[in-house]
Specification:
Blueprint lengths: L6 H19 L4 H17 L14 H18 L14 H15 L8
InterPro entries: IS66_C
Pfam families: DDE_Tnp_IS66_C
Protein name: Transposase domain-containing protein
């Protein structure tokens, strides 16, 4: 495997690649998913919890709640700061037709006629 000098390095790379690709295939935020695993697994093991692996899957309700909470927190922190600004409205041709007639009246000429 790329950038692995030992067999153990190859195994670790394969595990990480598998975790990341599983997250991608399930449509979750990979960064949040890895953070979730690195936060939750040590906590659960320290408590002696042995039946926690089902909650570690990217399709679990526990992870989905975690990701939703993270996304809400991110949105509240940044608000509209990094969102694209509203695009200015470009007038449509049918809107311009009425405006052109009004402009011509103000000038004193009509469309298609010479003074």
């Amino acid at each position: 495997m790329l950038f692995a000098d030992t067999i153990d390095g190859v195994k670790v790379n394969a595990i990480m690649y598998s975790i990341v690709e599983t997250a991608k295939e399930n449509g979750v935020n990979v960064r949040y998913y890895l953070q979730y695993l690195f936060d939750q697994i040590p906590l659960r093991r320290a408590r002696g919890d042995t039946g926690f692996m089902a909650d570690m899957m990217p399709w679990s309700d526990a992870y989905k709640e975690y990701e939703a909470k993270k996304l809400r927190k991110q949105q509240s922190m940044f608000g509209r700061l990094f969102m694209a600004p509203d695009r200015p409205r470009t007038p449509r041709k049918r809107d311009m037709a009425g405006n052109e007639a009004d402009r011509q009246k103000a000038v004193g000429t009509t469309i298609g006629k010479r003074a």
